[in-house]
Design brief:
Elements (H helix, E strand, L loop, with lengths): L2 E2 L1 H10 L4 H14 L1 E2 L5 H13 L4 E5 L2 E6 L2 E7 L2 H21 L1
Helix pairs in contact: 3-4
């Protein structure tokens, strides 16, 4: 089970616009289904490297355009994926979905 700290809940409300229950649901989804640090590439990966340097030991997940930072199984904070990285990610995902269509 994933827990949401008070700070994590406040940041989810402030940065995503969701209440406690929705923050809990999104935190669980991000923790189990979000893209892990080693799965990222390009500008997003560089940005996440800088975040990890500031938060030693944190688990980082990218999910639905947001960056979730966990300490073990507790959501600590949430950030938006920066615009410069979001454009790169959209193009990368489009390439992957096009690659899947080619084989099928």
């Amino acid at each position: 089970m994933v827990f949401v700290t008070i700070h994590g809940a406040l940041r989810a409300l402030q940065r995503i616009g969701v209440g406690d229950k929705e923050a809990q649901r999104l935190a669980s989804e991000a923790y189990y289904s979000g893209e892990e640090f080693h799965e990222t590439k390009g500008p997003l990966r560089k940005y996440l490297e800088r975040l990890k340097e500031r938060r030693l030991g944190g688990r980082v997940r990218v999910y639905r355009g947001f960056i979730f930072i966990f300490d073990r199984d507790r959501l600590v904070t949430v950030y938006s994926v920066p615009d410069f990285a979001e454009e790169f990610e959209k193009k990368r995902r489009a390439r992957f979905s096009n690659d899947d269509d080619v084989g099928g």
